[in-house]
Amino acid sequence: MRIVHSRSRTKAPPGLAGISEGKIPRPKLDVRLLTVNEYSRPGTALEKVRGVVIHYTANPGTSAAANRNYFEGLKDSHTAKASSHFIIGLRGEIIQCIPSSEISYASNERNGDTVSIECCIREESGKFEKATYDSAVHLTAWLVEHFGLETEDVIRHYDVTGKACPKYFVDFPSAWEQFLADVQAYLVSYGVF
User: Fold this and answer.
1) Distance, CA of 74 to CA of 96 (rounded, Å)
2) CA nearest neighbour of 132 among 40, 62, 70
């Protein structure tokens, strides 16, 4: 297990190669990359990142580690093809499962040009815990800066497929607009925009 602390100026850890330090400090990441396999980490290069997709785990009360282990277990169970680059837990912890230079199985036809973030939830409503929300804002803003994106490039899984994911942001569009505003404000506060 490798923890990457913010404001680190050392060589980027596996999966973050090519992401230079910018104005926004790197979030603390627990880098636990999945084994390369056809069900959760195909090892396919992600040519260019054109967006960040926000998801929710849809299994209330589970941890980031449990969701990461589910993805890892798909190499043996072969029950689905699913994964995410990052998973944010109920306490705001962030696990990185897939290098940002590879595709994940999270966003259907946008797998080839997006980075995905799964967010754990405590209740069926899908509303994020404050710590989860705060980490999602930080991580999203950091990815937007480092991939040269705009806030408009941050989308919901719903915007790709029509699936109610992340549920709370689909059920309450004003909450989604607030999330985007909070990401924008975070970028502005660090002088990115």
Assistant:
1) 17
2) 62
